[in-house]
Automatic annotation (TrEMBL):
Sequence similarity: Belongs to the class-IV pyridoxal-phosphate-dependent aminotransferase family.
InterPro entries (UniProt xref): Aminotrans_IV, Aminotrans_IV_CS, Aminotransferase-like, B_amino_transII, BCAT-like_C, BCAT-like_N, BCAT_family
UniProt protein name: Branched-chain-amino-acid aminotransferase
GO molecular-function term, one example from the UniProt record: L-isoleucine-2-oxoglutarate transaminase activity
Positions of post-translational N6-(pyridoxal phosphate)lysine modification: K199
Catalytic activity entry: L-isoleucine + 2-oxoglutarate = (S)-3-methyl-2-oxopentanoate + L-glutamate; L-valine + 2-oxoglutarate = 3-methyl-2-oxobutanoate + L-glutamate; L-leucine + 2-oxoglutarate = 4-methyl-2-oxopentanoate + L-glutamate
Cofactor(s) required for function per UniProt: pyridoxal 5'-phosphate
The organism's place on the tree of life at top rank: Bacteria
Any one biological process term the GO annotation gives: isoleucine biosynthetic process
Keywords for the protein's UniProt record, in alphabetical order: Amino-acid biosynthesis, Aminotransferase, Branched-chain amino acid biosynthesis, Pyridoxal phosphate, Transferase
Origin species: Rhodococcus tukisamuensis
Length: 362
């Protein structure tokens, strides 16, 4: 598929862009262009376009507005030391978008179109990628919605895939500080057989009331438990969790196994590899809130951290639930957490060897 290019008639000035890049925050500013690719049943994917970022018209009866067929991805592009721009594990995001599409009965976007949409957008908007060396990056947000007009409840026969991009600053301008979490036993995020393993918009809508409850409890984030027994840890807000047992070279890492109702994070998957590279034993298994509390108290669990594209790695310092609260690691980020964080961010910024071939130049 050839991309049609419509250049922006009045892109943001270099001065204005520099002002935005000096303090981008997260998801507040968008680059000059966006990509759209349409899908029509029978025709397949068509009309791939790079065009000015702008509001779009949507029919009030477009199916996404009623029955919620909407999925997305999130990945980052990083400026490298030699001024090229590279992204992290794009092929994994392409594959996960296809998996999400399958679950929500949407058409799969072929991986080459996913990759090309990113290359095409970066070709026109690469000046929006923050400077090399720091923690800032360009966050890429691919997504897909059902555009067919009609109120019948069934999979739509028309869709639009879009790619937008937003400069993202250091997630922790004040340095990496442990967060506090609320264990949610009243609300669940996803149930067996449900949509939890898909990056499906509705999962995020369903999470908001529990995140608000966590805030009311004085916590930064919500931690989701399994829907059936409300005993096993699933994930934290929009991030996966890791538990560090022991310390030094004998440290072991445990992360909740992919239960079918938690999101298979690409950062999670990468850290399983990097931790094994570093000589740590790694285990994917169920871990209960009782085990967490007891082994944090006995000192066997020494560090806990969450991981995801947006915030990379965030230590968890305090855990609260209806049953009480406890702390982990004395409120400071742990050594294993910070070592893994340095390795991962080093690969992404091009200062550490990319031995797994995870970076691709755009
Ligand atoms: N869990 C949820 C619910 C998420 O939304 C995300 C973010 O994408 C993650 C985990 C982490 O996934 P990744 O590492 O691929 O960003
Ligand atoms: C993540 O990257 O970890 C996220 O959860 C992204 C979020 C903005 C949906």
């Amino acid at each position: 598929l050839e991309f049609t290019h419509v250049a922006h008639p009045s892109p943001v000035s270099a001065d204005e862009r520099a002002r935005v890049l000096a303090n981008p925050g997260f998801g507040k500013y968008f680059t000059d262009h966006m990509v759209t690719i349409d899908y029509t049943e029978g025709l397949g994917w068509h009309d791939a376009t790079v065009q000015p970022y702008a509001p779009m018209q949507i029919d009030p009866a477009a199916m996404v507005l009623h029955y919620g067929q909407a999925i997305f991805e999130g990945l980052k592009a990083y400026r490298q030391q030699d001024d090229t721009v590279a992204s992290f594990r794009v092929a994994a995001n392409a594959e996960r978008l296809r998996a999400s599409a399958q679950r929500i009965a949407m058409p799969e976007l072929p991986d080459d179109l996913f990759l090309n949409s990113i290359t095409e957008l970066l070709a026109v908007d690469k000046d929006w990628v923050p400077v090399a060396g720091g923690e800032a990056s360009l966050y890429l947000r691919p997504f897909m919605i059902a555009t067919e007009v009609g109120l019948g409840v069934r999979p739509a026969n028309r869709y639009r895939y879009l790619l937008i991009a937003s400069p993202a600053g250091a997630y922790f301008p004040q340095g990496v500080k442990p967060v506090s979490v609320w264990l949610s036993t009243e609300y669940v995020r996803a149930a067996p057989g449900g949509t939890g393993a898909a990056k499906f918009a509705g999962n995020y809508a369903a999470s908001l009331v529990a995140q608000a409850q966590a805030a009311d409890e004085g916590c930064d984030q919500v931690v989701w438990l399994d829907a059936t027994e409300r005993r096993y840890v699933e994930e934290m807000g929009g991030m996966n969790l890791f538990f560090v047992f022991g310390s030094g070279p004998d440290a072991r890492l445990v992360t909740p196994e992919l239960s079918g109702s938690l999101l298979p994070g690409i950062t999670r998957n990468s850290l399983l590899t990097l931790a094994a590279d570093a000589g740590f034993a790694v285990e994917e298994r169920r871990i209960s809130t009782d085990e967490w509390r007891e082994k944090a108290a006995s000192g066997e669990i020494t560090e806990v951290f969450a991981c995801g594209t947006a915030a990379v790695i965030t230590p968890v310092g305090r855990v609260k639930s209806a049953a009480g609260e406890f702390t982990i690691g004395g409120g400071e980020p742990g050594a294993v957490t910070m070592a893994l964080r340095d390795t991962l961010t080093g690969i992404q910024r091009g200062t550490f060897a990319d031995i797994h071939g995870w970076m691709s130049t755009l």
